Amino acid sequence: MELSLHRLRMLRELQRKGTVTAAAASLHYTASAVSQQLAQLERDVGAKLFERLGRRVQLTELGKLLTEHAEEILGSVERATLALEEAQDARTVRLTAGVWASVASGLLPTALNALAGEHPGIEVRTRELAPEDTAEAVRDGTLDLSFVIDYSDSPMPWDAGLERAVVAVERLHAAVPRGAVPSGTASLDDLAEHPWILASPKSHFGRAMRTACRRHGFAPKINHEVEEQSTAMAMVGAGLGITLVSDLGLRLLRPPGIDVVTLTTPLLRTVSIAYRSTAFRRPALHLVIEAVRASAAELGLGTESALP
């Protein structure tokens, strides 16, 4: 009997998520592809590994047993990979990183160019995900590292099996239609009467901004709920409301018709790189972290964390 690591990883994720659809989304496959691979795993084993209970699935006793061993096997593979990297001085390594728009455009180009010049054997590939999804993809082994964010008013729940290294701390600014705040500075509560443009509370950003407003004594009047920051900024430029945007976001998005207002009580956003605790000794990982920190420093972004 030969067991595929790829299929074992899918079984482990099925056990964690409880549905084929959720497991597939976590691993970035279609549900049909995961179903086919799990069916093949059952054929490889010669036994049922899970049963469907409505929309959810439940592992059989054999499925639970195999999942327990899968955790050990996948952990052993990661430790073996680390040992090989150390033996080879970590100079020929491929890492996959989870990114989102503002870090992919604002921090990574300089960092990856510098890394390629100094350590050409380290190849970093990227995959764009929503910020709230990247840490989980590291935990399940889909990614080697990912960029994650925390807001001073709304820290993200953290997985004890992951470590994080702070690489940049940004300020948030109010983006307003030109002339809406002539002074150029304001407290957040000064902006309470303006119409707002924010992401939905499904996103970490949307939740964090609502929390910040509540802590300043008001609930924002949200006229437009949009997920893309570029859409929000375009709507601000058209005079439809105000939004909040980070330092990196301003480097990427600054359409005409917008004034940037400095908040008198700073709202901070901490950008970190998350990685599995078992990967702490990977030299290549630390070289990537240092390259990103250097890129952030060139932009004037420090590393004094907003984390509690």
TrEMBL record:
PROSITE patterns: HTH_LYSR. InterPro entries: LysR_HTH_N (IPR000847), LysR_subst-bd (IPR005119), WH-like_DNA-bd_sf (IPR036388), WH_DNA-bd_sf (IPR036390). It holds the Pfam family HTH_1. GO terms for molecular function: DNA binding; DNA-binding transcription factor activity. The keyword Signal does not apply. It comes from the Bacteria. Residues 3-60 form the HTH lysR-type domain. One of its GO terms (cellular component) is protein-DNA complex. Keywords: DNA-binding, Transcription, Transcription regulation. The keyword Transcription applies. Belongs to the LysR transcriptional regulatory family. This is LysR family transcriptional regulator. The lineage of its organism: Bacteria, Bacillati, Actinomycetota, Actinomycetes, Pseudonocardiales.
